[in-house]
Amino acid sequence: MMDEAFLRRMQSKCFVGRPSPQIRKKMLEPLLYLDVDVFNDKRMDFLVKITTNFSGAAVGALKSSIVVAIDSYKRSDVTDKLFLHLADNAAREFSC
């Protein structure tokens, strides 16, 4: 949130919308470098789909959560269900 005094001094305000599916995919692309087998095209499309209506900050937080989870779980335990759980946590944190 921005300080109210700062907002009063702004000449104009502009709306910055949610990132498009293409932008969300680009934001999530660094995950490909973690494990190409886990983050295949199907999984990346799934992540883009479940981040619909996420803000840029929420997508970034989800990406960070995924990096931590990848380090914590065995490869076989990394499932779509895990990603849904992490996305749900990010959505709740950022009120998406």
Q: How does this model look, in words?
A:
The protein has one domain. It has 5 helices and no strands. The chain has 96 residues and is mainly alpha-helical. The radius of gyration is 16 Å and the shape is elongated. The two termini are 15 Å apart.
Radius of gyration: 16 Å
Report the average pLDDT across residues: 91
Written as H for each helix and E for each strand, in order along the chain, the element string is: HHHHH
* Structural domain count: 1
Number of helices: 5
Tally of extended strands? 0
Instruction: Say what oligomer this is.
Output: single chain
Question: What distance lies between the first and last C-alpha atoms, to the nearest angstrom?
Answer: 15 Å
Class of secondary structure makeup: mainly alpha
Kindly state the percentage of residues in helix. Answer: 55-70%
Beta-strand share of residues: under 5%
Sheet with the most strands, sense and barrel status: none
Task: Summarize this entry quickly.
This protein has 96 residues and is mainly α. It has five helices and no strands.
Short descriptors:
96 residues; mainly alpha
What secondary-structure arrangement, pairings included, does this model have?
Layout: H1 4-9, H2 21-28, H3 41-50, H4 56-72, H5 80-94
Helix pairs in contact: 2-3, 3-5, 4-5
